[in-house]
Design goal:
Two copies of one chain form a homodimer. Chain A has about 230 residues and is α+β, with helices and mostly antiparallel strands. Helices cover about 35% and strands about 30% of the residues of chain A. The longest helix of chain A has 17 residues.
């Protein structure tokens, strides 16, 4: 609950556009909006920055303020929370991304027995050894990717084989280009940011869908887990 | 912004179920959740009640707390606000309600020239003199009806004819039972609550759709205004 304390101001900044781009703020204006003194407005922004929810930069007549990943994370959490209380969790979210060649470690991870056996059991297919990496280029897609963190997915548990510890992976069943079934992976501790989606499938997606780097791929992500 | 100050606690109560039904709370638990003292938790609940966001009732081992219409109103506003910042405003919302016979004043209002001429101009049809009243029975439908207040609709302006002042009406184009076009009206100062939807159409909907009191009607409400 503690981080929620800053929700009103973070929400306010988001409605002013600070989710997409730096907005210009003066503490005088902000004070008026919040019905608090300029000093209090200034202190609130300082707190928000101290907690890592915003980045800001002073300039002559005011300051630029933009929400950080942590700020967007809080908004995403609350947004999905509200979808739940309003009974409006979507069944399918859609994403588009451009194919790119990763560092090649996808195949390594997917073929670890600790993961592989869980993929077969929980996703219902044996994955082709490799991931299809997509870079999401539009802001709505990146937001959607961000929201996925807060939906219930299919949990692949982490494990240790004595030599190394492998982290947990959250998956969502997905339809690739409206044709082939697969899954989108949210890999914890991934070195990729929120603009990357990693896809696995029983198929060699690059080959079956005739994909090259730079091609646009459409992913329909199933987020509503069927109630048992 | 001022009412937003209470958003974190209202959101928290909603995630605990207080949107649908009274939840049992003790100030000890709440203090733990909020990481504040029991006294502060108690004071926050008192404030929330004083501002009209919750109703509560003490019983032996704690208190029942439920969000009021005003509390739900704030959540609805923030939820729709977040849909906007996440670029996820839906195009169509769906509602279902049971036909009931109103007090008969629908025909009177719809035929006032000040409204009638605006309906023709802004909705593109001359309404049949009468409204189809639907009572929404399920909680998700009532929530949807509540959310409509926060979407941009088609504004029918209020007017005065010298004898009386007629209030503004917000409309949304709608498809009735997937067949006939019409509009859903959000009548300000209506004596109906959030469980009633009033529909107009160029058609006599009761006749064309062969409806009787108690019949279930499906309404697809178009909420995303096409950008000019």
């Amino acid at each position: 609950m503690k981080p929620l304390r800053m929700l009103p101001l973070i929400y306010y900044l988001a409605t002013k556009g600070a989710m997409q781009h730096p907005i210009v703020l003066t503490t005088v204006e902000l004070g008026k909006e919040l019905k608090v003194s300029q000093q209090t407005a200034s202190r609130l922004l300082r707190q928000l920055e101290g907690l890592g929810f915003i980045k800001r930069e002073a300039f002559k007549r005011g300051q630029y303020v933009i929400l950080t990943d942590k700020g967007l994370e809080l908004l995403s959490q609350v947004y999905v929370g509200l979808q739940k209380v309003f009974g409006e969790v979507p069944e399918v979210l859609t994403l588009e991304g451009e194919v790119f060649t990763g560092l090649g470690e996808g195949a390594f991870y997917v073929t670890r027995e600790g993961y592989r056996s869980q993929f077969i059991k929980k996703l219902g297919f044996e994955p082709f050894p490799g991931t299809l990496n997509l870079r999401i280029k539009n802001i709505n897609g990146i937001n959607t990717r961000r929201l996925l963190e807060h939906y219930q997915g299919i949990e692949i548990q982490g494990f240790s084989n004595g030599l190394r510890t492998y982290g947990p992976v959250k998956c969502f069943k997905a339809k690739i280009n409206g044709k082939l079934d697969g899954a989108l992976l949210l890999i914890k501790r991934s070195h990729y940011g929120f603009d990357v989606a990693e896809i696995i499938s029983a198929y060699n997606l690059r080959k079956e869908l005739n994909l090259r780097d730079g091609d646009l791929v459409h992913v329909g992500v199933r987020v509503k887990t069927v109630e048992a």
